[in-house]
């Protein structure tokens, strides 16, 4: 395998860590309190999948991309330099803080830090969820993210240079004069690990993150728990036409949506032909009305 292998982790800065802990436990994450200013969310044997750090941003700070080995990581950094993208080599101490063997980073045109890593630490401690009946599907990485952008073509060019490949696009007029134009990109068999869409400048950097579960029951049970807790529901249960994900969207304490999904499409990424769609959802995914 060459290049980026998976979307490994996210770093989110949040103003209310206790609220995040309660919310994350409700969705099925295992929460580990590292300090009063940092919490880790586990989904599997990786030491963490999401870092929640204390701060006022309430938004995405970093995306971590995993490489299969150091040779592939170094080749990628050299290729980025040839395209005019200079990656900063983090110190050994910073790599230890991230629990990786090597760490490079780049700030993208939307202000998000991309971290390129290898040797992410695993733990012998079993993953323990208070809620899941099945498990998170993380063989192809954490899940996916959709970020907000201001310039579609510049974003396509940059993220392709970063090592991502377009899977498909969706363009839909959701209201008179309001068009959603989303681009979905992959790094492996998961339909997409990264997506972006032009949004107003005041929008969150991270529109949503998605986690996928092995059982459809875990989607329904999480939906029930979120409703019972009166979490703000962004979109009801529904299914997307491109990745075929059955899911719902709920608002986190930081105002970032979390999609909990089941049944995402696996693609032949080495022979994939880009597609286009005209609807964001095949059915459902109705916007919540209070």
Largest sheet: 10 strands, mixed
What is the H-and-E element order?
EHEEEEHEHEEEHEEEEHEEEEE
Backbone structural class:
alpha+beta
Which stretches of 5+ consecutive residues score pLDDT under 50? none
The quaternary structure here is single chain
Shape: globular
**Quantity of strands, as a count:** 18
The value of Rg in angstroms is 18 Å
Beta content comes to: 35-45%
Per CATH, what is the topology of the largest domain? 2,3-Dihydroxybiphenyl 1,2-Dioxygenase, domain 1
The appropriate CATH architecture of the largest domain is Roll
Average per-residue pLDDT, rounded, comes to: 96
- Count of helix runs: 5
Q: What would your notes on this structure say?
A:
By secondary structure, this protein is α+β, with helices and mostly antiparallel strands. The chain has 2 domains: 6-118, Roll (2,3-Dihydroxybiphenyl 1,2-Dioxygenase, domain 1), CATH 3.10.180; 144-284, 2,3-Dihydroxybiphenyl 1,2-Dioxygenase, domain 1. 19% of the residues lie in helices and 38% in strands. It has 5 helices and 18 strands. The strands form 2 sheets. A 10-stranded mixed β-sheet has the order 17-10-11-12-9-13-16-15-14-18. A hairpin with a 6-residue loop joins strand 14 (233-239) and strand 15. The radius of gyration is 18 Å and the shape is globular. The relative contact order is 0.16.
């Amino acid at each position: 395998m060459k290049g980026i292998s998976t979307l490994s982790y996210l770093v989110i800065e949040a103003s209310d860590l206790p609220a995040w802990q309660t919310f994350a436990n409700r969705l099925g994450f295992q929460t580990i309190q590292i300090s009063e200013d940092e919490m880790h969310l586990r989904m599997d044997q990786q030491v963490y999948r999401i870092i929640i750090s204390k701060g006022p941003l309430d938004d995405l700070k970093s995306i971590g991309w995993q490489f299969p080995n150091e040779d592939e990581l170094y080749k990628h950094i050299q290729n980025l330099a040839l395209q005019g993208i200079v990656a900063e080599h983090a110190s050994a101490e910073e790599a230890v803080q991230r629990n990786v063997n090597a760490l490079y980073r780049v700030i993208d045109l939307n202000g998000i830090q991309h971290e390129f890593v290898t040797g992410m630490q695993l733990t012998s401690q079993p993953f323990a969820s208070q809620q899941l009946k099945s498990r998170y599907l993380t063989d192809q990485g954490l899940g996916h993210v959709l970020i907000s952008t201001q310039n579609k073509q510049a974003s396509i060019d940059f993220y392709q240079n970063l090592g991502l490949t377009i899977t498909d696009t969706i363009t839909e007029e959701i209201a008179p004069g309001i068009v959603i134009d989303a681009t979905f990109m992959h790094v492996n068999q998961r339909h997409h690990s990264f997506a972006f869409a032009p949004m107003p400048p005041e929008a969150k950097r991270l529109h949503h993150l998605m986690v996928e579960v092995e059982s459809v029951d875990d989607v329904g049970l999480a939906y029930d728990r979120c409703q019972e807790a009166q979490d703000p529901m962004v979109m009801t249960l529904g299914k997307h036409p491109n990745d075929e994900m059955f899911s719902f969207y709920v608002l986190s304490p930081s105002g970032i949506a979390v999609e909990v999904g089941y049944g995402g499409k696996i693609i032949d990424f080495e022979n994939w032909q880009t597609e286009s769609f005209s609807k964001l959802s095949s059915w459902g995914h109705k916007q919540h009305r209070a």
